[in-house]
TrEMBL record:
Pfam families associated with the record: Memo
Naturally occurring in which organism (per UniProt): Plasmodium falciparum Vietnam Oak-Knoll (FVO)
Annotated family: Belongs to the MEMO1 family.
CDD domains for this protein: MEMO_like
PANTHER family noted in UniProt: PROTEIN MEMO1
InterPro entries membership: MEMO1_fam
Highest rank taxon of the organism: Eukaryota
Name assigned to this protein: AmmeMemoRadiSam system protein B
Length: 117
């Protein structure tokens, strides 16, 4: 059994057609015409694809990914109330472009440090 989170919103919040999605994102990045920067952190809207694509493209297109080792994605929990952080139990996330591997070692280190409550 694969240990991954399915792309549940593929085909509803965004197209499930990989090439169409890729084309829309690439076009949005071109319109952003952003200059690459050594970005340490970025905050992007948590909104539907049609609402946030242009804004997020400006942010992501400006990130010089040359030296990026890890990406941390923080977001609200829409299903249960919790205090502190919840961490994924899966090994990877499914996306229309393939799988995103989760760095379980970093998650383990954060949990051990007890700085997440």
């Amino acid at each position: 059994m694969e240990n991954y989170r399915r792309a549940y919103h593929s085909g509803s919040w965004y197209t499930n057609k990989r090439e169409v999605l890729k084309s829309k994102i690439e076009e949005s990045f071109k319109r952003a015409n952003a200059q690459k920067q050594n970005v340490k952190a970025a905050i992007c809207p948590h909104a539907g694809y049609d609402y946030a694509l242009e804004t997020n493209s400006h942010v992501y297109a400006s990130i010089d990914v040359e030296n990026v080792k890890n990406i941390f994605i923080l977001g609200p929990n829409h299903h249960i109330y919790n205090k502190g952080f919840l961490f994924p139990r899966v090994e990877k996330y499914e996306t229309p472009f393939g799988f995103l591997q989760i760095n379980k070692q970093i998650i383990s280190d954060i949990i051990k440090s007890d700085t997440h409550n």
